[in-house]
Amino acid sequence: MTSTNKKKAVVLLSGGIDSSTTLAIAKAEGFDCYALSFDYAQRHRRELESAKKVARALGVKKHLIISFDLREIGGSALTDQQISVPKDRAPEADNLIPVTYVPARNTIFLSFALSWAEVLQAENIFIGANQVDYSGYPDCRPEYLKAFEQMANLATKVSVEGRIHFQIRAPLINLTKAEIIKKGLSLGLDYSLTWSCYDPTSEGKPCLSCDSCRFRLKGFEEAGAKDPLLGV
Predict the structure, then answer these.
(1) 58 and 184 in contact (C-beta within 8 Å)?
(2) Pairwise CA distance, residues 66 & 42, whole Å
(3) What is the CATH number of the domain that holds 124?
(4) How does pLDDT run across 192-222, given as a tens digit for each residue?
(5) Residue 57 domain-assigned (yes or no)
(6) Number of domains in the chain
(7) For the chain, does the N or the C end have fewer beta carbons within 10 angstroms?
């Protein structure tokens, strides 16, 4: 199959474990991948550096980084410096939606992805959403993704004209973090390129205490693998 007749896919890429593994899966399925990342004035830019590295390593057709400022809206520890990132949350708190939830973030991201996919005429949009080892965000649930897919096919010219039926693909939705890591390793993904921490130290190292760090540590431990980023 040549590049001219390969299927196209838009892949949301944050630079973390889930989105990077999702990109690796899309590549393995034979898609020409167009990676989409966002500089939304989040707490730190370190994840964008990882997104760039992952996109280069996996050979995407194009990596687009869109900038806008969600600090003006706030409401999240990831966009408001006055809200602290939770550390070492108690296990029972895992059932609560934490302050690291960014209001409507996946809806915003998927809307940009849908716009680009319509221009590219890419039927598939990949997102690394997961409902097992994650922080309880409402926009990572399968019912949400199904609803967005339905909306996408009502809202776009190419779908209304019957030329494309958009699919929101979430291949990790029912996997544990360990299963995700094993899948990525089987595809040759270099996890040293990825980033997970919500609140890096002043030296630029992972804090090892935020939810995202906890899930990363737990995932590699349960996968029986060494995290090349942390050396543990």
Answers:
(1) no
(2) 13
(3) 3.40.50.620
(4) 999 999 999 989 899 999 989 999 999 999 9
(5) yes
(6) 1
(7) N
